[in-house]
Write a structure and sequence with these properties.
By secondary structure, the chain is an alpha/beta fold. The protein is built from 12 helices and 12 strands. The N and C termini lie far apart (72 Å).
């Protein structure tokens, strides 16, 4: 028999009382915004259900450093680990530590991580959306509670929360322009789900470059699918097995870039003469494969630093919604220019 008991959370208390999590949180903190009667109801129910704030979080609040929660879609990729490095570097300067949660590209795990951070009473949250997140209610709760939050990379609710993004549209346009000027004509774009703002920006830049050079847009070589290595590998193999296969690929991120690279090699095609390749990535391994990859460098550590700076401003009381754009850099190596 399983004797594991569910720890009562702020969300449980709010659901029982028919009020918001924000109301419960404020009542437990004796906020003057909440009437005495509601404070007493909340505290009585908390006692009845044996609600206890996370003891780990409580001890952290008593002793510096204070805590920032960070939610990322995939901790094992270079991009997100580098963003975390940047956040941690900046946070430590102001006496903060970070706790990270991996959503594994899943909206439900993302929402669970946010709930956990709320229960821990973190000072603020930095987040990048999971690729299947289309319901933003867990972030709406954060807005209602007044908890500082900053989005980076993939964003939503940009009217309420500050964001740190890259100039992906301009970078994609420059990369596609480079491919065209160095001999490529049938250029594929392999991206993630179409609802993600980052995907939209990068695809827009790619399409703008084709229009500028009067190259017909063929939707058959624009593949926007799940951000997953095996999915991207399979999609690239399908593209390159066509009779009218692409002679170049622009890849959305490091996962898709390495999958595309592997697919080209698997089919024993020459890079860049048969298929040129540029991907969005600042993974150090792009410089050490043969041939060395041309990339749009993400400057992920800088994104982490900027995200943390914005969050610290919000924690200090800055209520202005800010939008920071971190420029990306086109790094030309050996995979993109065909021999002419």
């Amino acid at each position: 028999m399983n004797n594991t008991k569910h720890r009562t959370s702020l969300k449980d208390l709010a659901a029982r009382l028919g009020v918001s999590i924000a109301t419960v949180s404020r009542a437990l903190r004796n906020s003057p915004e909440i009437g005495r009667e509601m404070q007493e109801r909340v505290k009585a129910l908390a006692k009845e259900l044996n609600y206890r704030p996370n003891p780990f979080a409580r001890s952290l609040r008593r002793e510096a450093p204070r805590i920032i929660g960070v939610v990322v879609p995939n901790l094992v990729t270079h991009f997100y680990s580098a963003v975390l490095d940047g956040i941690e570097e900046e946070a430590s300067k102001s006496g903060y530590s970070i706790i990270s949660a991996n959503s594994h590209e899943d909206c439900l795990l993302e929402a669970k991580a946010v709930d956990t951070f709320i229960d821990m009473h973190v000072e603020g949250i930095i987040a990048c959306l999971a690729q299947n997140t289309t319901d933003y209610s867990h972030f709406e709760e954060i807005a209602d509670m007044g908890i500082p939050l900053v989005f980076f990379g993939r964003t939503c609710m940009t009217d309420k929360f500050s964001t740190v993004t890259a100039n992906g549209d301009e970078a994609a346009q420059r990369a596609t322009d480079h491919l065209i000027k160095t001999g490529s004509r049938r250029i594929a774009f392999i991206g993630g789900p179409n609802h993600i703002d980052m995907v939209k920006r990068r695809k827009h830049g790619y399409l703008e470059a084709l229009r500028e050079h009067r190259i017909p847009i063929d939707r058959e070589v624009v593949v926007c699918d799940k951000i997953d290595y095996n999915t991207a590998l399979e999609n690239t193999l399908k593209l390159l097995s066509r009779d009218d296969r692409p002679d170049a690929i622009l890849a959305f991120n490091d996962i898709i870039t390495f999958a595309a690279y592997a697919a080209i090699r698997q089919l024993k095609l020459k890079i860049p003469d048969d298929v040129a390749l540029i991907g969005f990535s600042d993974d150090v391994h792009t410089e050490y494969v043969t041939p060395r990859m041309s990339v749009i460098a993400d400057r992920s550590r800088d994104m982490g630093r900027e995200s943390c700076r914005l969050l610290l401003k919000a924690i200090d009381g800055d209520t202005k919604v800010r939008k920071v754009i971190v420029p990306q850099k086109l790094v030309i190596r050996e995979t993109s220019a065909k021999r002419q």
